[in-house]
Specification:
This protein has 196 residues and is α/β, with parallel strands linked by helices. It has 9 helices and 7 strands, in the order ααααββαββαβαβαβα. It is elongated, with a radius of gyration of 26 Å. The model has no long low-confidence stretch (mean pLDDT 86).
């Protein structure tokens, strides 16, 4: 009969769970704060916007349902067509009802339009989805958002031409969460700037 060797006590202690002996070593002085779902998707929207090909906006858009990304879109010329970064802007002056003139680059498709087109292209319904956008949508985008069945829009900043958009979204029952009163501004936004 073989005799069992006795292990030294210090060897046994090394195999015990560290929870009893070393937890104080794992504590940190600063706790991590997870972003809310809105903050999380807004950060992703900003990254998507870095793919944009018009330097007047570099806007992004993320469509989400049940905390899952359905599609993304960013400002840019249609696929296969030269963009603003290559050709420059295709500017258009809009005269508003109050006589104020604003400048718009019309070469690119808006991020909201692209996210809707991308979802359609891959056969994904946006019914009941939330859109995370760079700014309040324009009137044309707001109408597309309504017709796509999107139920909520979240924007960190406002857009100077979005008054009618907000009205129609509200009328259609689309929840619009504008997170700040900050207005997006970009060079040459006002046609009057060029005339001064």
């Amino acid at each position: 009969m073989a005799l069992k060797k006795k292990r030294p006590k210090n060897v046994i202690a090394k195999h015990r769970s560290p929870s009893r002996f070393a937890m104080k070593d794992f504590k940190t002085t600063k706790s991590h704060v997870r972003p809310s779902w809105d903050e999380y998707f807004l950060k992703i929207m900003k990254i998507v916007g870095t793919r944009a090909t018009c330097d007047r906006g570099r806007s992004g858009c993320v469509a989400v349902r049940n905390k899952r990304i359905l599609a993304t879109g960013y400002v840019g010329a249609p696929a296969g067509v030269k963009d603003c970064d290559e050709l420059g802007h295709e500017m258009h002056t809009v005269v508003h009802g109050d006589g104020k003139k604003t400048q718009h680059c019309i070469r690119g498709t808006h991020a909201e339009q692209n996210v809707i087109a991308q979802a359609a292209r891959i056969g994904v319904s946006l019914e009941g989805a939330t859109l995370y956008v760079s700014m309040s949508p324009c009137y044309a985008c707001a109408k597309m958002i309504i017709n796509a069945g999107i139920s909520r829009v979240v924007a960190p900043k406002d857009y100077h031409g979005a008054m009618r958009s907000k009205e129609v979204l509200k009328e259609a029952g689309v929840v619009f969460d504008l997170l700040s009163g900050a207005m997006v501004k970009y060079p040459g936004m006002s046609a009057d700037e060029d005339e001064e």
